[in-house]
Amino acid sequence: xxxxxxxxxxxxxxxxxxxxxxxxxxxxxxxxxxxxxxxxxxxxxxxxxxxxxxxxxxxxxxxxxxxxxxxxxxxxxxxxxxxxxxxxxxxxxxxxxxxxxxxxxxxxxxxxxxxxxxxxxxxxxxxxxxxxxxxxxxxxxxxxxxxxxxxxxxxxxxxxxxxxxxxxxxxxxxxxxxxxxxxxxxxxx
Length: 189
Known about the structure:
Blueprint: H1 2-15, E1 60-61, H2 64-68, H3 89-92, E2 98-111, E3 114-121, E4 138-142, E5 156-170, E6 173-187
Parallel strand pairs: 1-2, 4-6
Antiparallel strand pairs: 2-3, 2-5, 3-4, 5-6
């Protein structure tokens, strides 16, 4: 086993591409550790910038308890002569309001610059990690044209924006009942 370990060490050092026999101790203070050095370059991570202040006046705080307290199936196919499940009046009155709501991000559309569309879900287990959430337990959220959000995998987000409540139908299926366009988004600490 010792012979194998020594052989592995020689291979590892040889793969670095440097002649380590000429190294006379530690590098001088302030010397770069870049290049083919055994120690990889470690750039200090810049702290995340402070979010710009945002005036939340005029935004009503709502939560998923209000939006999800009634029965609405996971999937709804529209059949001729059949009515859609009912959305309570108390929820329908939220349509067109500027709201503030907290949940978890489940990205739908994203690119190198960030997330342009996501589902804001009631809890983290109701997205890709657990059971499919009911249609009234998530909101389809879109960023404004050309804007992107950073992806937050496990953090709660508070989203502020104009809220839409209505059935969005595509190819005979209800695709969403809640939608928002983001005016402001913050990660909860």
